[in-house]
Amino acid sequence: MKRVLVIGAAGFIGRAVCTELQGRHDVVGLDITPRPADLCGLDWVSGSITDQPLVASTASGCDAAIFLASTSLPGSSQADLAGEVSSHVVGSLQVAETCAANGVGQFVFASSGGTVYGTDAPEEGLPETAPTRPRNGYGVSKLALEHYLRLMRETGRMRTLSLRISNPYGEGQRALRGQGLIAAAMQHALSGRRLPIWGDGTVERDFLHVSDVALAFAAALSHDGPSTEINIGSGQAVSINDILAAVRRVTGQPLDVDYVQGRSIDVRRSVLNVACAERELGWRAQIALDRGLERTARWWQQGTAQHAGIGQFAREGRAEIAKSG
Amino acid sequence: MKRVLVIGAAGFIGRAVCTELQGRHDVVGLDITPRPADLCGLDWVSGSITDQPLVASTASGCDAAIFLASTSLPGSSQADLAGEVSSHVVGSLQVAETCAANGVGQFVFASSGGTVYGTDAPEEGLPETAPTRPRNGYGVSKLALEHYLRLMRETGRMRTLSLRISNPYGEGQRALRGQGLIAAAMQHALSGRRLPIWGDGTVERDFLHVSDVALAFAAALSHDGPSTEINIGSGQAVSINDILAAVRRVTGQPLDVDYVQGRSIDVRRSVLNVACAERELGWRAQIALDRGLERTARWWQQGTAQHAGIGQFAREGRAEIAKSG
Questions:
Q1: Among candidate residues B47, B173, B55, B48, the one with its CA nearest the CA of residue B107
Q2: Which of A182, A325, B47, B51 could cross-link A191 (Cys pair, CB 3.0–4.6 Å)?
Q3: What confidence tier does A264 reach under pLDDT thresholds 50, 70, 90?
Q4: CA pair distance A121, B175, nearest whole angstrom
Q5: B85·A82 Cβ contact <8 A
Q6: What is the ipTM of this complex?
Q7: In order of start, what are the domains of chain B with their CATH numbers?
Q8: With contact defined as beta carbons under 8 Å apart, do B21 and B43 qualify?
């Protein structure tokens, strides 16, 4: 049992990670928000990751840290790259360096398998050694952070590992901020609104259920392999149109879409090769897409889920639907 | 004829670039220092690149900018990566974005062919498509800047180009800050001091005379090829021991060295493939190593060169030698 600091613990992935680690490890959650009701068993610190004294005192005594906080989004503006670096890269690195300086031995970073490559995947999926040429500022920042964290490991400051996560989806993901096609599709299907889709829906992505993401972070805590970046994905390429059809099936709703002119920024086929994760983490995705979508649809349909935290999210989702529908 | 802003104009490469562009273009130099005497024909603005209003007013009306300023060095500490990003990446990007916002159409960035790859070169040299896995914070920052600048081009904000320069050397390079093996070797040879060498001297590097670097920047101003990063090197791998032997020959001094335990951080063989520069810039190195070393030795030996600016540098060099010898 380790004492594990989860940074960004109240987010979509953070909550799943905390839930997964609870019982197996001594978990302390750090987030700007108060502790969610469904994570009441956890130590919790509410505060900003830019508050370095707070990060230092919280990290002190922890064996490992999992970094899931982000001040940036894939779709964020390209108009202020210096600001993107200031908030995203500098802020994240400060947290990592504060952890290292306070005796944290291991740092697991949530990187982005969907953006760091920026290149079309071959049949067998993108291996970790594929060229990295991100197509947006979010991807460049994730990639830069991977490199700086690798240097921290290579210079013996802290054992670091970057998990290049594909497109996560599942219960708890909100459709608020342009993230998550599946959450947006669920929300639009259930509210009867038309969903705008960039391009013709034939681009392929690698969707991974959030509970599999959580298992990958749990496995990463025992990692002692040579890799500094590891792909975490389903390894399966699925087209946007296939996702839409599956969402119609699991929700029982028609879900009309408007295809709008494709952004040239989009990669045609993004799917990860996950052989390294199997080899070094003993991890592979457990939840098939159909089953994951069914679970997700049920969560969206419940709206008033019994679990307070998830219920809260679901209610927010419904409120938005009501507002914008 | 274009109006060209040279940012970091008083530095080793900056002075050579300004000298090369003078007469061909309308040049304005920006640097923290006053205008060097040998660049008296240039428009000059003294100030910090962190002074954004100053950068904006200086950039306004310029067709192109050449960015040679750096607040970081290859050998700088790995202990404060967040600080490195704050000063180096954010500072440089702010200048680029200010240039774009003030109508500068083209931005040529001095990247580092010696650090962005971080991997051993094959026989034919590293092509621009080689994996990029820098071994120090300086290299990661240069690489990150390349990516952000590429995005600025891809999103139509400004035409950007990164020149991945190999190891520059030549007249005007000082041996002050751990940069430049050849400058250090010249200084030590002429002062009779022993030169410490990391490793056994068999590692190979790609040395390029500064006047060839200047020609590459001049050629870049007319670039309209597809590449966003272009290697600028001699394409020739030369071992450290061969350099030392050549420095002994051109200076006529013994130059004793102390081999100290190699840093694991060092790449064994770093040499650039320059086919792209030939193809897209019509550029290739003109000055053979022997001739370049002779010119450099003469500059070090003169000490009181007639050209005021260069003489000033040479005198500084001699003063250091006298002080530390």
A1: B55
A2: A325
A3: low
A4: 46
A5: no
A6: 0.90
A7: 3-324 (3.40.50.720)
A8: no
